[in-house]
């Protein structure tokens, strides 16, 4: 959005999309059930495209050096499908509780909750020699965002520190978000 400055007479926020591109996309995405798109659905479409594995693979080098090129949807159904998946991803990544749901990775074992050398072994993310997150998905542990693995980095950044109750809950949410991100990404198809 574009927000007004103090000297602007018009105090309303405005959509920050090129008018010609906005009009073209509205025509391409007009759907008998969904109607006409809004700016949030456009954002979600772009977010969904950027998480499409085929898109990321095809444009990997280009994405490192330039702004991403977002393809036009080939059909209204494609737009609305990708936008819906992008909305799911956006809500997960914003850590909206309703989107995350239950986090079935209990923190188990006796100890002081201090992070030692984290490791993954047989469905368990060991925080130290006696405590671990049970039933953890390997995909969450191995998941990359950019050049790092957030499930591993989060724990390594806390080495030597005792995890609080809130830290444990937060980490469980991270594991769920990464697992769900992988699940949704596998469904995103861009033509």
The string of secondary-structure elements, in order, is: HHHHHHEEEEHHH
Q: Strand pairing plus helix content: what structural class? A: mainly alpha
Overall, the morphology is elongated
Quote the beta fraction: 5-15%
Rg, rounded, reads 21 Å
Give the helix level as a range of percent.
Answer: 40-55%
Specify the number of helices: 9
How many strands appear in the DSSP assignment? 4
As an assembly, this protein is single chain
As residue ranges, the low-confidence spans are: none
* Strand order of the biggest β-sheet: 1-4-3-2
What is the end-to-end distance?
Answer: 28 Å
Taking the sheet with the most strands, its summary is:
4 strands, antiparallel
User: Overall pLDDT, averaged?
Assistant: 95
Describe it for me?
- The protein has 191 residues and is mostly helical.
- It contains nine helices and four strands.
- The protein has helices at residues 19-29, 39-50, 53-58, 60-65, 76-93, 97-100, 138-142, 150-156, 165-185, and strands spanning 107-108, 119-121, 124-126, 132-133.
- The chain has a four-stranded antiparallel beta sheet with strand order 1-4-3-2, with no helix packed on it.
- Helix 2 (39-50) crosses helix 5, helix 5 packs antiparallel against helix 9 (165-185) and helix 8 (150-156) runs antiparallel to helix 9 (165-185).
- The longest helix is centred in the C-terminal third of the chain and has 21 residues, at 165-185.
- The chain starts with 18 loop residues before the first helix and ends in a 6-residue tail after the last helix.
